[in-house]
Amino acid sequence: MSNLLDLLIAGLATGAIYAIVAVGFTLLWQTSQTINFAQGEFVMLPAFLMLAVMHAGAPFWLAILIGIALSLLLLGLGFKMLLVDPMLRHGVLPLAIATMALAIGIKEAAKQFWSAEASPFPSIIPGGDVTIFGRVVALQSIGVLVLAILAVLGLTTLLNRTSIGHQMQAAAQNPTVARIIGVPVERMILLTFLINAFLVALASLLITPIYLAKFSNGEVLGQAAFIAAIVGGFNQVRGAIAGGLLIGVVDNLSAAYVSTQYRAAVPLVLLIAIILFRPQGMLGRPEERTV
Amino acid sequence: MKPVFLASALLATVLTGAAIAQSGAPIKLANVAELSGGGATVGTNWKNGIDLAIEEINSKGGVLGRKLEVTHADSQSNPGVARAQVQKALDAEPYVLLGPGYSGSVKVTAPLAAEAGIAQIMGGEAAELTTTGNKFLFRTSFGQQSSMPKVAKYINDELKAKSVAIVWVNNDFGKGGRDSISKEFAKYNIKVAADLSTEAGQADFAADVSKIKAAAPDAVFVYVNEEESARILKELKRQGITVPLVGETTLVGQKVVELAGDAANGARGHVGLTTDAPVELIKAFRDKFVKKYNYVPDHNGLKGWLAIYMIKATTEKMGKVDSKGFADALHGFTITAAKEPGILMDATFDANGDIDRQGFLVEIVEGKQVVKQVLPKLGN
User: Fold this and answer.
1) Which helix (H) or strand (E) holds A285?
2) Mean pLDDT across chain A, nearest whole number?
3) How far, CA to CA in Å, does B322 sit from each of A176, B139, B253?
4) Residue A290 pLDDT > 70
5) Partner of B177 at 20 to 30 A CA spacing, among A124, A202, B185, B348?
6) Residue A119 DSSP symbol
7) d(CA A241, CA A12)
8) Which DSSP string do the residues of B320-380 spell out, in sequence order?
9) Is residue A226 in some structural domain?
10) pLDDT in tens, A115-125
11) Considering only CA atoms, which of A143, A114, A116, A113 is closest in space to residue A209?
């Protein structure tokens, strides 16, 4: 039982990071029909940007700020203007393929510029332990979980409680009507890309101290977040959050109670089951397309 | 008659010139290593060690007056790619093949080199590699059959552990180590409290460490590659595991210390080679390496360096550059540091290509390897 509690806490901490990345997936899909297969690499890159700034002599806090700013510029604005806008007019599939190419490009560039070797990355959460229900739990696990929950709460507050959030939702649900009632749709879409860039930078900051900074980190993260988004519901932010947490917990429990070798297969089995029996995801809503 | 004489003289001149050119031509070596992928730390250190040794030897006139030249190919830490790269390298008829470092890649490439009759000096440590009768394969470090008995003895005699959790990576290297250490534990009646297989490149060890915590062993034996060692050390610290952590070179290497930071403190292991060894020649090697590459190498840097000096010493022993005779000349050969300082410590190569030399038991103290015991060469 105590072992189960350890596994649940560790799984929730990792799952919360998957959730942040999965939320980015769903936001991009809802506002611009973009399936970003480079999302994992988007999480990998900010850590390297921060490391580069630190190597230039900047303190960690400044590196974080510059890293986030660079992420907004490259993975938000640059991604939208240089890849999504030109490709989207050719359809969703060419754009999806273009993001696959981008994933390979980012991964290889990171390997080329930095190194194929892993690098250590400092943690923003101090080391140490806390006791919960008589169990000693690492402060880092709790910190990751708390920061991720705060990020998700902040995002949902922005979307549901502010004028900008309502405009973003309007732009996502029906861009034509939104334009008629005066919503600056293009600006709202750009804002979504910037939010996604911020979320991946935050995820990078939280996961890299555990995974170490390595060019190949995006493979695992991208796949986990993609599965989380589909399992939870690709068209609902709350679905992506639930999916992320579920995948994190399922991954850890399957590694402990099924087999380490098959741990990667269990979330995929869950994905297949969801597609077969509830294609809209756990919390998603069915979508109909007109032709 | 005169034209015939002139033609003969011309032919003789051309042939002599060709012979001179041949004797002065560089000796070509081929290296296939893990320059990217999960084994990038291994392959990069190995490659840098090779390049450094070649640079030094060439600056002193080369081997038998000929320069050494090496080509590097990337196996991507993938046995399939390694096999293709080795085949390509052998097609260019190198004097000696260097690498790979991963046992799984060595296993699939060794038959190719043997078939071509080219000696292969590699970094793999799986016990089975030198038990197949391959007469062309040579180690640069101890095989598991040499190192695991020492580790098990240390766990039994010094740590007095009665139960141990084994964490191993699910590949040829890890499986070989796990099998060897389990056999040794059985001899000492040490119980295996948990037997945990992990994957190469695994990023998240939370579940594995939870299992260790639940098993409550007296010690943990960790046998995974360097990057995974760093990740699991961090997770072990995160989950508050305080029992002794013991492993081999891959647990206490420089790269692991760099990646794991504080979490590496207290980790102990047997290392065949360490740049912190109390050996003057190794210290000098370390200084040269740091000067050129600006970081402290792990044992793989030493292995790459030694591979080149094995070639130099063996070739000078033969007195000629003879690819076909190389393996025979190295079998049973003892290279002494007195005669060839580049070999750093006296080393003997047996008929299977296994190496015998002194080893070390180290512990990570405040981010540095501290040698606790020097284990003498078995043949002494």
Assistant:
1) none
2) 88
3) 79, 20, 36
4) no
5) B348
6) B
7) 11
8) S--HHHHHHHHTT-EE-TTT-GGG-S-EEE-TTS-EE--EEEEEEETTEEEEEEEEPPTT-
9) no
10) 888 899 999 98
11) A143
Whether A244 and A270 have beta carbons less than 8 Å apart is answered as no
Contact B182, B164 (CB under 8 A): no
Chain A residues within 8 A of B210 when measuring between CB atoms: 3, 6-7, 10, 252, 256
**CB of B182 less than 8 A from some CB of A:** no
For B:40-79, CB contacts with A below 8 A are 40-41, 44
Q: Taking the alpha carbons of B268, B273, B277, B278 in that order, is the dihedral positive or negative?
A: positive
Beta strand B359-365 with B268-271 is antiparallel
Give me A141's structure tokens.
């696990």
Q: Calculate how close chain B gets to A160, using CA atoms only, in Å.
A: 34
Mean pLDDT over B75-86 rounds to 95
**Count of domains observed in chain A:** 1
Q: How far from A234 is each of A31, A225, A230, A278, CA to CA, in Å? A: 12, 11, 5, 12
Answer whether B214 sits within 8 Å of A2, measured CB to CB: yes
Tokens at B318, concatenated: 């033969």
Determine contact: B287 vs chain A, CB below 8 A: no
Helix (H) or strand (E) holding A232: helix A217-232
Residue A46 lies in a domain: yes
CB within 8 Å: B197 and A260: yes
Per CB-CB distance under 8 Å, the chain A contacts of B235 are: 210
Q: Where are the beta strands (DSSP E) in B79-190?
A: 96-98, 120-122, 137-139, 163-169
- Rounded Cα distance, A264 and A261, in Å: 7
Residue A139 has what pLDDT?
82
Q: What is the reported pTM?
A: 0.76
A154 lies in some domain = yes
Cis peptide before B100 (omega within 30 of 0): yes
Q: What are the pLDDT digits (tens) for B181-203?
A: 999 999 999 999 999 999 888 88
Taking a C-beta distance cutoff of 8 angstroms, is the pair B305, B52 a contact?
yes
If you ran DSSP here, which 8-state letter would residue B158 be given?
T
Q: Indicate the average pLDDT of chain B.
A: 90
* Nearest chain A residue to B200, by CA: A261
DSSP B129: G
User: In 10 A of CB A167, how many CB atoms?
Assistant: 19
A195 within 8 A of A155, measured Cβ to Cβ: yes
Placement of tokens 């840098």 in the chain: B48
Domains of chain B, start order = 26-142+278-358 (3.40.50.2300), 146-271 (3.40.50.2300)
Q: Which residues of A touch B203 (CB under 8 A)?
A: 210-211, 217, 220
Residue B44: the pLDDT is 94
Give domain status of residue A279, yes or no: no
Distance of CA B209 to the CA centre of its chain: 28
**A68 is in which domain, residue-wise?**
2-215
Half-sphere exposure of A137 (CA within 13 A, CB side): 24
Residue B76 DSSP SS3:
coil
